[in-house]
Amino acid sequence: MRNLKKTYDGWALVTGASSGIGKEMARELAAQKFDLILVARNQDALDQLSHELVLQHDIQTRVIALDLVQEGAAAALHAQVEDLDVGLLIASAGIDEMGPFLEKDYTDLRRMIRLNVDAPSELAHLFGTAMAAEQTPGRKRAGIILVSSLFAYQGTPNFAVYAATKAYVLTLGEALTVEMSKQGIDVLTLSPGLTATPFADGLKMNAALLPMVAQNPRRVARVGLRNLGRKMSVVSGMLNKAYAWENRLIPRSWPVYLFGFLIENAMRSYQKRIDKTPAKKASA
After folding, report:
1. Quick one: how far is CA 184 from the chain centroid?
2. Does residue 281 carry a pLDDT above 50?
């Protein structure tokens, strides 16, 4: 694994650190002796991770239990760590709202937009501004990783707004790679496909019917960290790369219709399995 300490310094802040890719990012950075700011909603999960990383790697941590959906949360987070020199920002927190667009409660969609779009944008602005101000001659570079998705590369039926939010993150990250590089800040956008996380486990579809292989979150995290400062964006996994690139070779509508069909089929299979499962008898 590439030693990021040679290029970056200061504390690393990881959102979505309580599980999945964010948790594995934190573990990889701790192994490289970065002090960590761990951010997520689940206080207990953060405390357990903090204890693990401090014990194993003799680093410092700061745990911040915070829901980034809430109004003013990003600014509140920034204020809580102003006393620290944050040299890396990993914006990994995100949620999805699966299902037909018109059947979704727009309150839930708005919540997803706030977490997937507003939060990483504001965090990149707040911490990017601070990182740029700290760049002086002889100082190491700073870095930002924004976590997007394979679905960012096309419209995805039954994940319509989720895919749109991740397309925003991808486009934002690509632009910031160019803008911020001049100020000593490397920006990478990481786009995972299906990954074995609690996030994926909660999807109400039979993922076995999709032409995808669930990746290990540690492997995805390593792909992101390895390519920071080397690429503008990266898709983890060879099959996922093929899906992302196919839009450049065939009409954009084809993969939209294809994934729409496949996801509908996987959803129907899941529902049939649920319908066949006998209801548990109430205890006497």
Report:
1. 23
2. no
Please state, for a pLDDT cut of 90, what percent of the chain lies above it: 72
Q: Is the pLDDT of residue 280 over 60?
A: no
Residue 193 CB-half CA count within 13 A: 17
CATH number of 4-204+213-248: 3.40.50.720
Any bridge partners for residue 37, and if so which?
13, 62
What are 81's two structure tokens? Answer: 């760590």
Phi–psi pair at 262, nearest 5 degrees: -65, -40
Tokens encoding 186: 């490397």
177 contacts: CB under 8 Å, gap ≥ 6: 186, 187, 188, 189, 232, 233
Catalytic residues: 162
Decide if 120 contacts 169 (C-beta within 8 A).
yes
Fill in the amino acid letter for 173. Answer: G
Q: How many CB atoms lie within 10 A of CB 273?
A: 10
Distance from the first to the final alpha carbon of the chain: 56
Q: Which two tokens stand for residue 260?
A: 């729409």
Q: Which two tokens stand for residue 50?
A: 């903090």
CA distances from 266 to 79, 113, 188 (A): 44, 25, 32
Beta bridge partners of 13: 37, 89
pLDDT in the model for residue 253: 92
What is this structure's pTM? 0.92
Encode pLDDT of 223-237 as tens digits.
Answer: 999 999 999 999 998
Query: DSSP E strands: which ranges in 55-213?
Result: 61-65, 86-91, 142-147, 185-191
Structure tokens at 235: 């898709």
